[in-house]
Amino acid sequence: xxxxxxxxxxxxxxxxxxxxxxxxxxxxxxxxxxxxxxxxxxxxxxxxxxxxxxxxxxxxxxxxxxxxxxxxxxxxxxxxxxxxxxxxxxxxxxxxxxxxxxxxxxxxxxxxxxxxxxxxxxxxxxxxxxxxxxxxxxxxxxxxxxxxxxxxxxxxxxxxxxxxxxxxxxxxxxxxxxxxxxxxxxxxxxxxxxxxxxxxxxxxxxxxxxxxxxxxxxxxxxxxxxxxxxxxxxxxxxxxxxxxxxxxxxxxxxxxxxxxxxxxxxxxxxxxxx
Length: 274
Prior knowledge:
Elements: H1 2-26, H2 42-47, H3 51-85, H4 90-102, H5 105-119, H6 127-153, H7 155-164, H8 169-180, H9 182-198, H10 201-206, H11 214-223, H12 230-272
C-alpha cells in the first residue's frame, strides 16, 4: 500500500508539470480558470513552420549525432582496453568519470573559454569546441554503460576465445565485443543524446547565438517579454520530452527482444551440448 502511494505521489509530481505544458501548448487562452478556455493545434503547426525553431532543432540534432560518434569512437575502445587488457587503470578511469559530476558545467565552459582564447583562438565560438566540450561532460554516461555491458558479456572470456582463433585486438573489438555490448552502447548513446539535446550552459558560454541550439532558443523565448511565445515554448518542451521518451522506449523494447530471444534459444543450446 505504501509503495503504491509513493509511486502515485511520484507520478503526480512528475506528471503535473508535463500535463500543464501539454495543455498550454494546446490552449487558445488560459487565464484564471483551472483549465484552458479552448483548445487548438495551431501552436503545434505554427511552431514547426518557424525557420528559427527548425534551425535550432537541426543544430541540436547535429550536435547530438556528432557527440554520440565521438563517444563511441573514443569511449568504447578505452573501456574495452581498461576491462580486458589493463584492469589496473579501471579505478583511475572511474575516478576521471566522476569529474563532470563534481565540477559545475558552467565552470567547465568558463575554463574552456579562457584556455581556448589563449591557446587556440580560432576554435573559440565554433561548433567543434561545443561538440568536444559536450562529449567531455557526457563521457561518464557512455563509459559506465559500456563498462557494465563489457563485464556482463564476459569480455575477457570472449577476447581470449577470439585470440585463440587468431583474431587481433582490433578485429576482436569490432567483430566480437561490439556486437555483444551493443545494448550498452545504445543505452549510453541515449543518455548522451539527452545530455546534448538539453545542454544549455556550455552552448551559452562557448557558442552563444552563433550556434543557437534548442535550449538556447527556449531560453530566448522565456526571457523575452515582447518577442517570446510561451505557447511555442510549451510545444517545444513537450516535443523534446516525447522524442527522448520514444527513444527510451525503443531501447527498452530492443533490449527486451534480445533477452527473450536468448532465453528462447537457451534450451536448444543446452540440448545440443555434448
